[in-house]
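Example 3.2
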Amino acid sequence: MALASNSPKADIEAKISYHEGWKESFSVVIGGDEVMTGKPSPEIFLEAANRLKIEPSNLLVIEDSVPSVTAGKAAGMEVVAVPSLPKQTHLYNSADEVINSLLDLRPEKWGLPPFQDWIEGTLPLEPWHIGGPIIHGFGRGSKLLGIPTANLSTEGCSDLLSEHPSGAVYFGWAGLSARGIYKMVMSIGWNPYFDDKEKTIEPWLLHKFDEDFYGEELRLVIVGYIRSEANFPSLESLIAKIHEDRDIAERALDLPLYAKHRDDQYLKMP
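Structure, written as tokens:
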């Protein structure tokens, strides 16, 4: 692997020195001050290929900006784009693939060894927490989809949410202090089918409740990732996919790897 950045070489090395194992992961590190012209010129990628002693056509570029995607394609390489700005995928049409986040990167698509950490259609994550009072959503969960969600407000959560990919389907455990702890699957993002303008947090508690509980405090422990949000040709196909997500989460949460987080103290806090 090579790291090719428009940043000065000294800045790159300083940044990666703070992360154990990063420097050793790259056979080649090239800064923008080591080439005549930075991206979108292909020069820096061609220099990386030269130092790796690999033909450009045999290299895969992973990038987050439009100029860098342009540079990778001009170098004759295949490019996976991970847009740095949400809902801007249309700007990355020249890439060979556009993915929502690095969680969606599948190396085997490109003839590389697959990641070994996916388990039964799920990707384990370092658990993280979010909570708040249940709010009214768009009113489409129960009425239109037949899937009652217990929505949370994104207000005051921007810092936390910025640490985790949006436009994604996660799963984990949900705690309602007066009711109990339940399996849940959730989306965070802008539902592409409905073209939401605002980011939403929409957990589906996998239990049949007899009444609404708006205003009650909901605590979530997110333990794994399933997929990125996607658009669908019909409402029926969207509903079918959501039910597939439910089935994946139901099975996964019975695995010891995920089941142990049911005892997370965050779920039981008053």
